[in-house]
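During the no-cost extension, the postdoctoral fellow (Dr. R.K.) reprocessed legacy sequence entries with the updated structure-token encoder. One reprocessed record is reproduced below for audit purposes.
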Amino acid sequence: MNNIKKNPAHSVCLSGKVYPLDHRNAIFYKICDKMKKTAGPTLLVILCCLIQLFFLLKSVPCQQAQAAGKTPLERYGRLGVSGSRLTDNSGNPVQLKGVSTHGLSWYPQYVTKKAFRTLRDKWNADVVRLAMYTAEYNGYCTGSFRNRKELKALIDKAVRYCDELGLYVIIDWHILSDNHPDIYKKQAKAFFKSMARKYAEQGNVIYEICNEPNGGVTWPQIRSYARTVIRTIRRYDKNGIIITGTPSWSQDVDIAASSPLKGGNLMYGFHYYASTHGEPYRQKLLQAVDAGLPVFVSEYGICEASGHGVIRREEAARWMELLDRNSISCVAWNLSNKDEASALIRTDCAKTDSWKRSELSASGKWVYDMMRNSEK
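Re-encoded structure tokens follow.
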């Protein structure tokens, strides 16, 4: 036993358990002690060296499995913003990728722990976005009191599932047909007051305070609304990430960059659909990022902006290359089987989780493949 040298510190995976150096050495020397009684000195040295080599080779995949087994929240912790970048709790740039629900009132069946686990484990998702329409049928501000109560309960379940799974979650005040964020500003203040009071300590909640301002709404008007809602959130959640939409369906980030909001951990929404928005829109995004604006692509698709139409994979790849190169986070629209090109599930698939690739739409397959191949 005197000619056997101890190895440098490594953990070892044996029978499904990870042993640090002292445990490994104890096992190793116990085995060698038993062999000493039946084998000669030379054979003993050879066999013991082989055992050590086996332990070292086994420790590598075991360590890799442990790293791969970390949840997004375990990997990155509480998020922040530094310059134009989203960062982890150590200040390193982070790029989140994930999926948005469709309207919570219309497709609540996809808000389940199994669905979110599928997105995390099979799709490699870091974040889920909860799209709560403010207007339209059964929107938060147009539906009944009962409907508002049910929407808040659904959000609460979704946030709990994301917390249990170690996912980040975006609570999205989904302005669309109501155009101007001021229309329901009073309701927005009350809603985000409730959300911030409830989730300030969780560390995985992101607030998106106006999805897609449109219809000629200007950046000064949006900025005024945002200041009010941000102040409301900051009374309870001092450090949570807040995403503010930008003019023209959250595309004029270059205009927002000329007079950004004051305050920490603030980001700006940018949306694109690859078949509608090409190189001029990529230049708008780059102009904003180069000016130091922290941008979060909280919604994108690879079809037309209507949610229908043709899919342009080459344009989609150009967009993703730009986002990856600049560590810009992005969320794909939308988790449903709706009869539209942007829906990620095939219309003939009724499953609400554990989807096979063959059960995804053309958009779904592209997003699934892209996210699975993303490095973490």
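Confidence is low (pLDDT under 50) at residues 1-36, 44-49, 51-67. Residues 41-68 form the longest helix (28 residues). The remaining legacy entries will be reprocessed before the final report is submitted.
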